[in-house]
Design goal:
Elements: H1 3-17, H2 21-36, H3 39-47, H4 53-79, H5 93-100, H6 112-143, H7 145-172, H8 176-207, H9 215-226
Helix pairs in contact: 1-6, 2-4, 3-4, 4-7, 5-8, 6-7, 6-8, 8-9
One fe (ii) ion binds at residues 66, 126, 158, 161.
């Protein structure tokens, strides 16, 4: 299954999901959580290691953008009028990646290579966002144009963040080969976590009847996620 086909199928699925306020609230709750999760502390740890004023500015801007993104998504979630609960840990992509990467996101950043690793990890998260957000934007466009506009605004930031990540990782990498190998490893790791998380999310949506499809549709999605290959978002 190539990525374009997956994006097309993804759009069909997300359109169905966001057709109801309950579905919109669920997705926006997850997006708000992902924007506010864990990364915040990582920026502070990176700042403790980075002296270069221009790079410090990037880190600070990146951090404040992500806080703003969380607020924007939370506001759109609240606008659905549906009350949501905290996202359960098994539906958090970041937690899954962190576990698969031996807790890399909790590690202190103690040297230059640590800064590189942290920023390559952030880079793969940005790559996933850039793959998913256009799909979400298209899905929301008809049913909730305000949220679609928020996604357009956030996407522009994420594109800039990707450049920050690339610049900082390159500056702190011991050499290009180490950077390339680490990035490839993180992309693989994230892709596997993404598939597992998608599956868990689907189970949750069906169990709680948040997804408004019939039994046949559910079975189709169930099979599709079962055969979904773990392809990195940047492939
Ligand atoms: Fe963001
Ligand atoms: Fe970002």
């Amino acid at each position: 299954m190539d990525l374009e086909l997956r994006d097309k199928l993804g759009l069909r699925f997300v359109k169905r999901l966001v057709a109801t306020p309950k579905g919109r609230a669920h997705l926006l709750n997850q997006l708000a959580d992902a924007e506010s999760n864990g990364e915040a502390d990582l920026f502070n740890r990176a700042l403790a290691q980075v002296d270069d004023p221009s790079l410090r500015k990037m880190i600070e801007k990146h951090q404040s953008d992500e806080i703003r993104h969380a607020e924007l998504f939370s506001a759109r979630r609240d606008a659905t009028g549906v009350r949501t609960r905290a996202v359960p840990p098994h539906l958090k992509l970041l937690d899954r990646i962190n576990a698969a990467a031996d807790g890399i996101l909790d590690e202190p950043i103690a040297d230059r290579a640590g800064v590189m690793r942290a920023y390559l990890m952030l880079q793969v998260l940005e790559e996933r966002a850039m793959r998913q957000f256009p799909v979400f934007e298209a899905a929301f466009r008809e049913v909730d144009p305000e949220t679609a506009d928020v996604l357009v605004e956030i996407m522009a930031d994420e594109e800039r963040h990707l450049k920050y990540c690339q610049a900082i990782a390159k500056r702190y990498a011991p050499d290009q080969a180490t950077l390339d190998a680490t990035l490839a490893k993180y992309r693989e790791l994230e892709a596997r976590a993404f598939v597992a998380n998608s599956r868990a999310n689907l189970e949750w949506l069906f169990e709680r009847e948040i997804f408004a499809g019939n039994g046949v549709e559910k079975a189709v999605w169930w099979v599709l996620t079962a055969v979904m290959p773990a392809t990195p978002a940047a492939a």
